[in-house]
Amino acid sequence: MREVDAIVLGAGAAGLMTALTAGQRGRRVAVLDHADEAGRKILISGGGRCNFTNLDCAATRFLSGNPHFAKSALARFGPADILAMIERHKIAWHEKTLGQLFCDGSARAVVAMLLAECAAGGVTIGLSHRITDVSLSDRFVVTTDRGVYRAPALVLATGGLSIPKMGASGLSHAIARQFGLCVTDT
Q1: pTM of the model
Q2: Measured distance CA(81)–CA(52) in Å, rounded
Q3: 132 and 178: one domain?
Q4: Rounded distance, CA 119 to CA 24, Å?
């Protein structure tokens, strides 16, 4: 059994950003994903060039049951912050219409950047891990076909149901419901 401070389910953009942030703040983090590579949706976004942010991103452009959520999130990490990270990793980029920012080269550079930032925070990345059970006693216990992980915090970042061919499933929705969290029907 592996003991960590946080388990993140999903090695996409949200999961990796969550993990690298926690890892770089001194937390022991394990990211688990069923896919055999991280960032699969990143790799197809923007036609393989990764539309990594939008200069005109604003809280008013998000729909949420909590209208202040986007304000809070963007105040902590906005387009300028992701652009600074992109530039720190020397990823060439360009602006398209309406403030959309894309890599000049492959989206693989963004995935590599996120993985490098995770490594800098000591984050463990577990790919090809099939989740078989999630439970809660004094800690969350995530059982996979490759081992068991325990942590006081669990982050569901498995993405939506939009691209079933890539393995999108209702796993996060099922886990959220299991713990009594409100889930908006899609």
Answers
A1: 0.93
A2: 11
A3: yes
A4: 9
